[in-house]
Amino acid sequence: MSRINKIAEKAALANRKLLIPYLVAGDPNLETTSAIMHKLVGQGADIIELGIPFSDPSSDGPIIQRGVERALAKGTTLKQVLGLVAEFRKTDTNTGIVLMGYLNPIETMGYKAFAEAASSAGVDGVLTVDLPPMEADELNAMMRAVEVDTIFLVAPTTREERVASITEHCSGYLYYVSLKGVTGAALTDFGSVTTNINKLRERTQLPIVIGFGIKDAESAAAMGRLADGVIIGSALVEKIALLADQVEHESELLTDTIRVISEAREALDKLV
After folding, report:
1. Catalytic: which of 49, 124, 149, 238?
2. Cα separation of 99 and 48, whole Å?
3. Residue 272: inside a domain
4. Burial class (CB in 10 A: 0-12, 13-18, 19+), 244
């Protein structure tokens, strides 16, 4: 059983919603990313999604794109991101870590080399935004061979036949995109989210988590009522943008940066 499966199973038994923050690795620098990761765990994060910086983040909105630009300006590479995870694992073997990004850096490294390096570093899952499930067999096989979950997105516009393919290939959890558009857009149509989540539950036993548009405790609670967990990305990355390039890692500034996560955790726990 993968670490993500264990986390999800434990949460389900406790009737606890999964809380998954997203941040861009290397934004504003790798040292600060590491400090934020540990702080997020302290505020109730179950799994952390780490964005792999890439020069053409086409699925992301302006907030995350700027975070990617800051990370790339520091020269952050995929190998450094894997090194960041390995360092994190020296003191935390319980929190799930998912790498989220685009196919190009993985192809450049090579599927086999990436799979082995990810497993060795302690990565639990990989979500490749621009890799269609029908073309994912080779990478999936490499990741499954080293017991790393492959996670896929389902959007409101995803066709039925593609949903079937996604649920067949997906493991760990299923990421439901709550709205049409890019990250950071506003979430308003709760009715269609409810309908689509119910349809997905007929197709898969995997935990279903909702991302895109969740920016505060209120929206986290609203989506937490419908799904097994929520993902908060742009709201966190927007706060990280306010950090100085060099920051005292135990400062009130860093604590304030991740307050959206602690507030979301509190709101989700009230749903029990």
Report:
1. 49
2. 9
3. no
4. exposed
